[in-house]
Amino acid sequence: MVIYLKLFLTFLKIGAFTFGGGYAMLPLIQEAVLDNGWMSNEEIVNFIAVSESTPGPFAINSATYVGMQMGGLFGAFCATLGVVLPSFVIILIVAKIFDKFKNNKTVAGCMTGLKPVVIGMIAAALLSLAKTVFIPNGFSTGIFSEPSFYISLGIFAVMTVLAMKKAHPILIICISAVVGIASGFILGL
Fold first, then answer.
1. Concatenated DSSP letters for the chain?
2. What's the rounded Cα separation, in Å, for the pair 174 and 49?
3. Among 27, 1, 7, which Cα is nearest to 84's?
4. At what angle do helices 105-134 and 22-35 cross, to 10 degrees?
5. What is the distance between the alpha carbons of residues 164 and 171, in angstroms, rounded to a whole number?
6. What percent of the chain is modeled with pLDDT above 70?
7. CA pseudo-torsion sign 145, 40, 87, 49
8. Interior/surface letters 42-81, b for 16+ CB within 10 angstroms, e for the rest
9. Residue 44 · residue 32 · CB < 8 Å
10. Domain extents for the chain?
11. Model pLDDT for residues 65-81, shown as the tens digit of each residue
12. What pLDDT digit, counting tens, does each position of 14-60 carry?
């Protein structure tokens, strides 16, 4: 029973104090999962891949995945409810009062101030994930002799080019998966 309450409260806090969607939640999710000992950094990279690859919002997929890993079906329900509830309540309130405050300078200033924070949180998540993917055992010159480093770097470069050329995200995900699986078989990872 304790794990269900912990999952609910952890994801309730994440849902309540994160603006900007699932990617902005990533640093908080990562911190909570690591602090609670629910997953390792390697497992977090895997759950991000699963959460990103499955249909639906990233934050909900992440909460559901972590909840399922830690508490089965009811754990998934508790974590998902926790992450969704704050947004649901806030949207209900905002929908009710938006017309009264949409031209308020304080509200506009608050929203303007939140934008850089969201970008910063997404960048922090990107750097943390990049560290886990590219230098999982810390930085040393030895990483330059590992084929997996160059494969990861190559996949990243190709997918960045495809994204810049506005390739469809599904195509990018599928190509990444195929190249990752193929390289895993070739290298025996």
1. -HHHHHHHHHHHHHHHS--SSHHHHHHHHHHHHHHTTS--HHHHHHHHHHHHHSSS-HHHHHHHHHHHHHHHHHHHHHHHHHHHHHHHHHHHHHHHHHHHHTT-HHHHHHHHHHHHHHHHHHHHHHHHHHHHHH-TT---GGGGG-HHHHHHHHHHHHHHHHHHTT--HHHHHHHHHHHHHHHHHHHT-
2. 12
3. 7
4. 60
5. 13
6. 92
7. positive
8. eebbebbeebeeeeeebbbbbbbbbbbbbbeeebbbbbbb
9. no
10. 2-134, 136-189
11. 899 999 999 999 999 99
12. 888 876 666 777 788 888 888 999 988 888 888 777 777 777 788 88
Token pair 């609910």 in the structure block, residue = 8
Q: How confident is the model at residue 128 (pLDDT cuts 50, 70, 90)?
A: confident
Match 């308020």 to its residue by tokens: 104
Residues in the chain: 189
User: Which amino acid belongs to residue 154?
Assistant: G
Integer Cα distance of 18 and 98 in angstroms: 20
Q: Are 12 and 80 in contact (CB under 8 A)?
A: no
CB 155 within 8 A of CB 49: no
**Paired tokens of 143:** 């990483």
